[in-house]
Amino acid sequence: MNCRKGDPEGLANGISHFSFLISHYLKKHGFEAFCPKAVLFDMDGVLYDSMPNHAIAWQQSMAKFGIRMTQADAYATEGARGVDTIRKMVKVQQGRDIDEAEAQMMYDEKTRQFHALPKPPVMPGILELMAQIQADGLTIGVVTGSGQRPLIKRLMNDFCGFLDENHIVTAYDVKHGKPNPDPYLMGLQKVGNLNPWEAIVVENAPLGVRAGVAARILTIAVNTGPLPDEVLLQAGADLIFDRMTDLSHDWRNIYTPSSSSSSS
After folding, report:
1. N or C: which terminus of the chain carries fewer CB neighbours within 10 A?
2. pTM (two decimals)
3. DSSP H or E stretch at residue 7
4. Cα distance between residue 147 and residue 149, in whole Å
5. Nearest to residue 57, comparing CAs of 151, 134, 132, 127?
């Protein structure tokens, strides 16, 4: 089993930056060792460079219902269930409590407008990263706040050979979406009933980072959007990268497929 144990002396003893951060994660949660068996990816802004399209669709669709939503709002609420975002914005801006059915009707319009836009590309570096993860024998899962069936079908097409549909968590698998831990706890179940120290979360948005941290999983943030790094760090990210290609390049520093050892 590949496990990495913490070193409380950290960088003072000359261990690597990544080992120090893993040690900090273990100490924070009181775990003895980090033994990853799966990687749980968010979808939008992580697997696909789709957030610009989502921002446009959110702004245009919500305007039809008298709701003002900015690009910053779209990025800040990314990862949450769409119906939850809508219900909160209606409450704040119109003082109304709407039920899930009305929110779903509004979200359907957002979905329609999203699919009318050009198809977003696969995020650069993600296929190379998945190839490494699969070669290391780890399971790949997806945890998304979306429930759009066309997107799930596209996942299976674009990541054929890397992803099993049974390892995908959508908005309809949980009652409480991100930033609650429920989506990632469900993700742990779907990839083999794993413990938190047996997985890695890869996220791009503060709500998703908070969800991964709340589930006590090592959470890597890849800042593919316009938000400052500090926002993701304040959300609790254990590691942060600027690009998915950077994470792919540094994967071997995070996961070492050798036998159990102390931090290295």
Report:
1. N
2. 0.84
3. none
4. 6
5. 151
